[in-house]
Amino acid sequence: MYPHERSLVKKMQNKPFVLLGVNSDQDRAALKPVLEKEKITWRSFWNGGSTDGPISRMFKVTGWPTLILIDAKGVIRNVWRGAPPAETLDKAIDKVVKEASASAKQ
């Protein structure tokens, strides 16, 4: 999913959009070269070195990847267990970004 995520970050630059990653790698030091190699420029939180870490438990994540779309008001709008088709994801993101942009103009 990294290529699509990179394209989303670029497409949504200067819009009310943030991509956050969560990783469960045990070795944080070994993760850093992977982030550089994959050109992951967005914030990525460490899940305590386990798939059963605090972030996974808070959001009830039971499978990977899990994508959670949260709107500008903090409401969870979509949860995908497994990678959704890129078109489905983009359409859902576009909708919440448009809503956030419209709210900001008011």
Report on this structure.
The chain has 106 residues and is an alpha+beta fold. The protein has one domain: Glutaredoxin, CATH 3.40.30. The protein is 42% helix and 16% strand. It has helices at 2-11, 28-37, 54-58, 86-105; strands at 21-23, 44-46, 66-70, 76-81. It has a two-stranded parallel ribbon with strand order 1-2. Strands 3-4 form a two-stranded antiparallel ribbon. A hairpin with a 5-residue loop joins β3 (66-70) and β4 (76-81). The mean pLDDT is 93.
The best one-word shape is globular
What is the name of the CATH superfamily?
Glutaredoxin
Could you describe the largest sheet, including whether it forms a barrel? 2 strands, parallel
**Strand tally, please?**
4
Summarize model confidence as the mean pLDDT: 93
**For the terminal residues, how far apart are their CA atoms?**
35 Å
| Spans where pLDDT lies below 50 across 5 or more residues | none
Structural class: alpha+beta
What is the overall number of helices?
4
Provide the CATH architecture. Answer: 3-Layer(aba) Sandwich
Radius of gyration: 15 Å
Beta-strand content estimate: 15-25%
CATH topology: Glutaredoxin
Helicity level, as a percent range?
A: 40-55%
CATH class: Alpha Beta
Q: Provide the spatial order of strands within the biggest beta sheet.
A: 1-2
Our count of domains comes out at 1
Order of helices and strands: HEHEHEEH
List the helices and strands and how they pair.
Layout: H1 2-11, E1 21-23, H2 28-37, E2 44-46, H3 54-58, E3 66-70, E4 76-81, H4 86-105
Parallel strand pairs: 1-2
Antiparallel strand pairs: 3-4
